[in-house]
Write a structure and sequence with these properties.
This protein is an alpha/beta fold. The protein folds into two domains: 7-174, VC0802-like, CATH 3.30.2130; 178-411, Rossmann fold (3-Layer(aba) Sandwich). It has helices at 17-30, 54-58, 81-92, 112-126, 145-150, 176-184, 198-209, 232-240, 251-267, 287-292, 295-298, 321-327, 329-348, 373-384; strands at residues 7-13, 34-41, 44-50, 67-76, 98-105, 131-135, 158-162, 166-173, 221-225, 244-248, 275-279, 302-307, 353-364, 370-372, 386-395, 402-411. The strands form two sheets. The chain has an eight-stranded mixed β-sheet. Strands 9, 10, 11, 12, 13, 14, 15 and 16 form an eight-stranded mixed β-sheet that branches. It is elongated, with a radius of gyration of 24 Å.
Length: 412
């Protein structure tokens, strides 16, 4: 098999499987990968990719927000699982003086207890000729991503995955500590205006960017976050190398975003990026005049509005449906006010390709299921001329009263 033949990969997705899967497909399409989905089993996506190498696929982990691990499928399973795993380890680590290996299982028929026994048996066999260390599963069904990174199971060792029909070799793992750092170690934070998780911000950006023409050329694109809060969306745009304009009605939010973006710029040595952050009311901000003020923005061919506006007061207890509807009257006015205001800008720039990825509050009620602000707004949004690109996606944990409903829209 030469380096650019068809290869098979398994992408391990995060908790919100549908959202993560949509992002994966969006990024593969945007980056012009020649791929075919083989199968989707829970949070495992098996993909054939033509004319590629492992490095190109592994680098996707630095772009995707919703993918945890990427494995290359290196062999089929036989009836002797231990023999299969040992052969891959022996062949791959033949030139190593010391072998460090781990095994994750994505086959519910092979629990962690059995995996660890197989690993210890392989270790005992290999120790006859080499120094060997086995990294066992401590909980769940897989080696935790942070352990995979810290133990160097890609660069100086090997991590294998057991799938129902195949064996996989780890080629990329999400840097959980890096994501956490951006979430919790920023110099400025605000629990009320900075709650958008960095991973979700990255997913939303990838969904929006994939809908824009020539999206591989980030020089053509401006990301706009008119509700920037403490800047999580701006930070992820910066790390994707896309110019952005962030605004917020709060002077504190603007100051926080400026400080946080400067921190990221220094932490990741970001260069050759244009961005502005300023105070503005999204329902009355003159987008045309203000974007025109900046020469680096005025020539953009595409704009991606990616944002999380105000989701209402935080809630520990479920409201009734009537209470939710009453509370969100003003919030609805803000959402529609912004969308109508942006429509005026878009009318002045009819040749500009526009995509919007927006979070709407999705509230669990005591008596009548879920209250969806998006459902409340959708008829008026469509009358304005916005078109839904895909069905809204939900992001949130079971215990959360207020979840997120993510809408992807366009203006033709």
């Amino acid at each position: 098999m030469n380096s650019l033949s068809t290869k098979k990969f398994a992408f391990i997705l995060g908790r919100e499987i549908e959202l993560c899967f949509r992002e994966l497909e969006a990024v593969l399409q945007r980056l012009d990968f020649d791929y075919t989905i083989i199968n989707v089993a829970k949070n495992n996506v098996f993909i054939n990719i033509d004319n590629t190498d492992n490095t190109s696929v592994a680098e996707l982990i630095n772009i995707l927000g919703g993918t945890i691990k990427i494995f290359e499928l290196v062999g089929d399973r036989s009836n002797n699982l231990e023999k299969d795993l040992k052969k891959v380890i022996s062949d791959d680590c033949a030139e190593m003086d010391r072998i460090e290996f781990g095994i994750s299982s994505y086959d519910f028929g092979v629990p962690a207890s059995r995996v660890n026994l197989i690993g210890l048996s392989i270790k005992k066999s290999l120790k006859k000729s080499k120094s060997v260390r086995f990294v066992a599963i401590s909980q769940g069904f897989e080696i935790a991503p942070v352990v995979s990174l810290k133990q160097g199971l890609i660069k100086k060792g090997i991590e294998l995955a057991i799938f129902p029909r195949a064996i996989g070799k780890l080629i990329a793992v999400s840097n959980i500590e890096d994501w956490s750092s951006r979430d919790y170690e920023k110099p400025k934070g605000d629990k009320r205006s900075g709650m958008l998780p960095p991973k979700l911000a990255r997913i939303m950006l990838n969904l929006a960017l994939s809908e824009l023409p020539n999206s591989r050329n980030s020089n053509d694109i401006l990301v706009l976050d008119p509700f920037c809060g403490s800047g999580n969306m701006l930070i992820e745009s910066m790390l994707l190398g896309v110019d952005f304009l962030g605004t917020d009605l709060s002077a504190k939010a603007v100051e926080d975003s400026i400080d946080n973006c400067q921190w990221i710029k220094e932490k990741y040595s970001v260069v050759n990026l244009n961005y502005k952050i300023e105070m503005a009311d999204a329902t009355s901000f003159n987008f045309f005049e203000n974007i025109k003020r900046y020469s680096e923005f005025s020539k953009k061919n595409s704009i991606a509005i990616v944002c999380e506006p105000y989701l209402g007061e935080p809630k520990k207890f479920k409201p009734t449906m009537n209470a939710a509807k009453g509370e969100y009257v003003k919030v609805k006015e803000m959402y529609l006010g912004f969308l109508n205001n942006f429509l005026q800008f878009r009318t002045q720039n009819s040749g500009l390709k526009t995509v919007l990825c927006i979070v709407f509050p999705y509230v669990e009620t005591l008596d009548k299921g879920m209250y969806s602000l998006y459902d409340e707004c959708v008829d008026e949004i469509q009358k304005m001329g916005y078109t839904e690109l895909q069905s809204p996606l939900i992001y949130g944990r079971d215990y959360q009263v207020v979840k997120r409903e993510i809408a992807l829209l366009t203006l033709e």
